[in-house]
Structure formats: C-alpha cells, structure tokens
Design a protein that fits this description.
- By secondary structure, the chain is an all-alpha fold.
- Helix content is 61%, strand content 0%.
- The chain contains three helices and no strands.
- Helix 1 crosses helix 3 and helix 2 packs across helix 3.
- The chain starts with 15 loop residues before the first helix and ends in a 6-residue tail after the last helix.
C-alpha cells in the first residue's frame, strides 16, 4: 500500500541474474527507445519516468551497473 491513493506499489520476485539484466537494460534504454514504442511524446515521457523510478529502486538495492 502506498501513501498516495493514485500510486501503485509493485512487488516482483526476480533472480539475481534477472535483476542485474533488468538494471543493465534500464541503463541502456533511452528516451528514443520509449518514443519508438509510444503513441506520442507524452506517453513516452511517462514511460521513461516510470523506468527511471524502477532503475532508482534497483540502485538502492545495489544493482547499479555503470
């Protein structure tokens, strides 16, 4: 449960390898990748922002590929 009723808290179980691979993917993915799969710029920006949140959470648990 989150403090903001407009937010959804996700929980997912991943192996260490899956977690590392996801962190690598998010490191290498840029706005252009999201834009190529979005219906417009606004959706691409929202997708990119969500991915950055996930990446930030991965960093906090020591999955920070450089």
């Amino acid at each position: 449960m989150t403090a903001n009723p407009n937010e959804i808290c996700l929980s997912v179980s991943l192996s260490e390898q899956e977690t590392w691979d996801l962190a690598q993917f998010l490191k290498r993915t840029g706005f252009a990748d999201f834009r190529s799969h979005a219906v417009d710029d606004d959706e691409a920006y929202r997708m990119h922002a969500a991915a950055l949140k996930v990446r930030g959470n991965l960093v906090t648990i020591s999955y920070d590929p450089r």
